[in-house]
Specification:
GO terms for molecular function: acyl-CoA dehydrogenase activity; flavin adenine dinucleotide binding. With 408 residues, the chain is of the alpha+beta class. 53% of the residues lie in helices and 15% in strands. The strands form four sheets. A four-stranded antiparallel beta sheet has the order 4-5-9-8, with no helix packed on it. The structure holds flavin-adenine dinucleotide. The site of flavin-adenine dinucleotide has 22 residues, from strand 3, strand 5 and helix 13.
């Protein structure tokens, strides 16, 4: 087990500087344009693929860094560049994690390369769990997967919503109900391969922030996928369902479902994204406060402004420490006995919302315009308290964990 450290080693510093260079030179200059266009920034994703930032290999290398700092450091730098574009680059990772967490080696080897494509023909992937009536309450999911034994195929029907890359993805990972009697324990995840008939994009959402990231409904009408597309395989599913039925009969402990496992694994990473956006806005505000003069002196000479900057920086550093701790715990197999992953996401996302609002205030009228990036950063920051579990759900998870109660 690696000791917890707050110091990046030389290799990590090199990767961080390289990512920062990409964020500063490629992502940030493109941010305003793709925010206005509200479209997936394919050329930027392709640039990322060319230099090696858009690939499973890169993220796997960061993930397996035993210090746990690889992923948070990468997310912070990319999202420092721009949240919408960075989500377009890392969004495929959520679907990839779904396959890594639940799939067999063969499924991982077959589908993950198709999620990313290659530098000459980049692809994206989507993870589809949320539904119009099943957001925080994952157990209310209605999308059904029914097994057609004669053909060894699964038939999927339902409507997914809020899917990042939904409808434009080469590979969709869809969570569906296989046994409605078991609530969230009766869910399973499926690969929907490229060009499968019956899968279509519904409404594409016009959003408040992260507008360069595509978010849409995914409609599934009699979508037939081979038996081999059930993540983990039929035997494992049957065993899991049998155990869940026994526990349900005995009124025993709840099993975590596949979607929940995916969200848990990705929470500190979302916290790191929020730290990146917060840091970007703080840096803009600090620079502005040092150069903008009113009443014959830089505005930072006023305690009212300087103290805001002091609070902003303190919260950002505290958020980063919570994120790094949670990532270190995850990589080293430490039990999250106080829901430290949720703590990191909660604190970092609330920090990003607050700090970006403070940055607007420090920039005055300029902060309120699209001429300056803090306006976009504030719109972007609002997402962190919503996706991957809202702030209220994080508090619920933390409180239930502290109380020793089951997490529903
Ligand atoms: C831009 C974007 C991208 C997304 N990407 C994906 C994706 O790729 N894949 C995917 O599957 N999903 C995705 N989501 C969905 C996201 O995870 C959900 O929006 C989120 O889980 C909240 O669900 P909801 O929107 O239905 O809100 P609701 O669950 O309806 O919540 C509404 C409000 O009620 C509160 N609330 C609900 N239950 C409780 C409770 N028990 N106690 C206290 N308060 C409560 C919530 O905190 C919130 O404030 C995305 C969403 C957005 C906006």
């Amino acid at each position: 087990m690696a000791e917890f450290t707050m110091e990046l080693n030389d290799d990590q510093k090199e990767v961080r500087d390289w990512l920062h260079g990409f964020a500063a030179e490629v992502i940030r200059p493109a941010a305003a344009e793709w925010d206005e266009r509200e479209e997936t920034p394919w050329p930027v994703i392709q640039e990322a693929a060319k230099v090696g930032i858009y690939s499973l290999d890169f993220y796997a290398q960061q993930y397996f860094d035993p210090t746990g700092l690889g992923i948070p450091m990468a997310m912070e730098e990319l999202f420092w560049g721009d949240a919408g574009i960075a989500l377009s680059i890392v969004g495929t990772g959520l679907a990839a994690v779904g396959v890594l967490a639940n799939g067999t080696e063969e499924q991982i080897g077959t589908w993950i390369p198709q999620m990313y494509g290659d530098a000459n023909d980049v692809k994206v992937a989507a993870f589809c769990s949320s539904e119009p009536d099943a957001g925080s309450d994952v157990a209310s999911m209605r999308t059904r997967a029914v097994y057609d034994e004669a053909k060894d195929e699964w038939v999927l029907n339902g409507t997914k919503t809020w899917a990042t890359n939904g409808g434009i993805a080469n590979v969709h990972v869809v969570v569906a109900v296989v046994d409605p009697e078991l609530g969230s324990k009766g869910h399973a995840s499926f690969i929907v391969p490229p060009n499968t008939p019956g899968l279509s994009q519904g409404q594409k959402f016009k959003k408040h922030g992260i507008r360069a990231s595509h978010t849409a409904e995914v409609v599934l009408e009699n979508v037939r996928v081979p038996g081999s597309c059930l993540l983990g395989g039929k035997e494992k599913l049957d065993q899991r369902l049998a155990r869940a039925r026994e526990r349900a009969k005995a009124g025993g402990e709840r099993l975590k479902n596949a979607a929940m496992a995916t969200f848990e694994a990705s929470r500190p990473a979302v916290g790191a994204m929020a730290v990146g956006t917060a840091r970007a806005a703080y840096e803009e505000a600090l620079e502005y406060a040092k150069t903008r003069e009113q009443f014959g002196r830089p505005i930072i000479d006023n305690q009212g402004v300087a103290f805001q900057l002091a609070d902003m920086r303190t919260s950002i550093d505290a958020a980063r420490l919570l994120v790094w701790r949670a990532s270190w715990m995850a990589v080293n197999g430490k039990a999250f006995t106080a829901a430290e992953g949720s703590m990191s996401k909660l604190f970092a996302s609330e920090t990003a919302k607050k700090v970006t609002a403070q940055a607007i205030q420090i920039l005055g009228g300029n902060g309120y315009t699209r001429e300056y990036p803090v306006e976009r950063m504030h719109r972007d920051a609002a997402i962190y308290t919503i996706f991957e579990g809202t702030s209220e759900i994080q508090r619920l998870v933390i409180a239930r964990t502290l109380a020793g109660m089951p997490i529903r």
